[in-house]
Amino acid sequence: MPKQNSPQDIAQSQDSVAELFARSSEEQQHLGYFHTLREICQQPSTWTHTSELMVQSTPALLHRLEGISSLTLTGSGSSEYAGDCVRMVLQKELGVNVQAVAGGALLTHGTQALPVGRPALMVSLARSGDSPESVGALALMLKTEPELGHLVLTCNPKGSLANAFRTDPRVVTITLDDRTNDRSLVMTSSFTNLVLAARFLGLLLDPSRYESICTALAHSASAFLQTQVDALAQVANAPFRRVLFLGSGARFAAAREAALKMLEMTAGRVTASCETYLGLRHGPMSAVHDNTLVVCFLSSEARLRAYEADVLQELAHKQLGLYRLIAGGRVPRELIGAKDVVIPYEHAEDLGDDSLPVLDVIVGQILALFRCLGEGLRPDAPSASGVIQRVVQGFPLHHSNG
Question: pTM of the predicted model, to two decimals?
């Protein structure tokens, strides 16, 4: 089992973490980074625990997946993006139509938002399970879709989503370790653990491979946290006002989450966006200005990387952006400009793009953490005015008259 990274462990090699951890617990809580720092650092060990929990749940999951023709991954905000991180690989491995659908879309459009094909499975992903969409969407589908089975993956054993449907035979509920139920406003360890929990659905018949993937990712993340935090902290303090995150396939889903982390943790002071590499040419490149940090999640697959390299070379030729941060395995020297920062991933080629989103989002989490501190905000609760909160507050659910 990979060694758990505590802030103390990482502080031994990363000065930026040592500086934060040098303060007392009371001062860390006063400055508002006590929870976020620990929740980012704990991720490798929580991944290992999640893999063990999911493998133990194999019989119930096999029964729930048996004979399905389509699968829906649903959640709201980060939880939706977590589903998007595994959508393509689950479709490949299960051989059925798989879509990621926002919980809000299920409330507003009902069964129209679901992929075709019955019987089907809907997987509800949630940290707290207390947002209005979480319970509302599942309750609506139970009422209107008799051929739809349900799996709930949540981090909160006390949440409404974990408890409201326990007596319904159509719903299987798996609650992850309490450590993944982030106390910070933003989702960090909850996000990556929900991704890896959902990932198991494609490997139910090969649990040893699933466990080996989670173990390898935990080792890579542990090494990453021990060596790259200082570099990311330095980039986070650069004079950018915009961040563009680039990715392809599952890595684009990670870019969506990374952009949301920067937006949330800077309370909108830094404008964050995401795009695919090839999509960048179709208009969004016009927004890459001299104050833009470009974060590039570089594919480990040769053909995809060739397309991505073309775009990076075009950005360099047009002299677009303030800095580029390139994250991935074995970044070619010819892609690295004089001002570029490279964040290497161990064993990226062996793990493949399907597994790398959880590493990508840690890059986004750390950038957002240090930029949040640089803006004088509190990472545990960056929205000082309360515009956004840890759990979306209740709102009316409007039901059809039909």
Answer: 0.94
